[in-house]
Amino acid sequence: MRDSTLDAGLIGTLYRAACLAELDALKPGNVHAFAAGHRMVVADFITSADVSAPALAQAGTGIGARVRDGVAATMAAVGQNTNLGILLLCAPLAVAAERGQSVSASLGSLQSPDSEAVFAAIRLANPGGLGRAGNHDVAAPAPKSLLEAMAEAAGRDRIARAYVDNFADVAAIGLPALSAARETGLDPSWCTSAVHLAYLRSVPDSHIARKAGSATAEAVRREAEAALTGLDLACKPVTPLLALDASLKARGLNPGTSADFTVATLFWDALAAAGAVLA
């Protein structure tokens, strides 16, 4: 146990702030303050952050319970899945910060009740494009090991992969992008855009892959990389980014996993700044 434990109230405040900061940034293809989309509006996500924060930060509870209760509160408030991915990524960070553990230790503490709670959360949220799986199907009883189920899905879902590689994408993509953006003097919302764009251009988005196929997800990644090459965020390039945003939304392509990882990156950074030692 490390002497880097954080108060549950602070964890909840930092989680909500990360959710709201992500909404303020221009994130092509996703819902944000510059443009709604996918039959959702920013207000839905603000409400979702408000109502899920107490569950996400509930002292003494495990990862699974935080995810399940956060999803339940969200569905009761807005009637749709706005934050399952966010909660799946942020719950291990919250538990680690409260206990003074690394993320690896937090994930290593997962037990059977966590698996049951996470599977219940997924069934409740009913995320688009989930489909059926040969092993560990969410329609079936939850397996005893959540990590085993996540390992099974890791090849097709970046959030599941985070559970088995100790959030390697946050360390390799998100946090470096955030640091680089700050070093260039970007304001906070454009730093957040930089994080989202780093995910969008670096790895195929799992949400797009689930709904439209892996080939489409890779095509969007290449499209984003081409569109962003030479783009200077210091110039606040709203017009070209909104053009990409409109194009993706017109095709029904929502890089939701990139947005979820953006929240997780901001949350990790804020927890670390408050004293948590997550790595």
Question: Which features would summarize this protein structure in a list?
Answer:
mainly alpha, 2 domains, 279 residues, 14 helices
Describe the structure concisely for a colleague:
By secondary structure, the chain is mainly α. The protein has helices at residues 8-24, 42-56, 63-78, 84-99, 103-108, 112-125, 146-153, 158-164, 168-183, 188-202, 206-212, 214-228, 238-250, 256-273.
Fold and architecture overview:
The chain is mainly alpha-helical and 279 residues long. It has two domains: 8-153 and 263-274, no CATH class; 172-256, no CATH class. It contains 14 helices and no strands. It has helices at 8-24, 42-56, 63-78, 84-99, 103-108, 112-125, 146-153, 158-164, 168-183, 188-202, 206-212, 214-228, 238-250, 256-273. The two termini are 14 Å apart.
Share of helix, binned: 55-70%
Order of helices and strands: HHHHHHHHHHHHHH
Number of domains: 2
- With helices defined by DSSP (H or I, 4 residues minimum), what is the helix count? 14
Largest beta-sheet characterization: none
Question: How many DSSP-defined strands?
Answer: 0
Cα(first) to Cα(last) distance is: 14 Å
Secondary structure blueprint with pairings:
Layout: H1 8-24, H2 42-56, H3 63-78, H4 84-99, H5 103-108, H6 112-125, H7 146-153, H8 158-164, H9 168-183, H10 188-202, H11 206-212, H12 214-228, H13 238-250, H14 256-273
Helix pairs in contact: 1-2, 1-4, 1-14, 2-3, 3-4, 3-6, 4-14, 7-8, 9-10, 9-14, 10-12, 10-14, 11-12, 12-13
InterPro entries: CitG (IPR002736)
Protein name: Triphosphoribosyl-dephospho-CoA synthase
GO molecular function: ATP binding; triphosphoribosyl-dephospho-CoA synthase activity
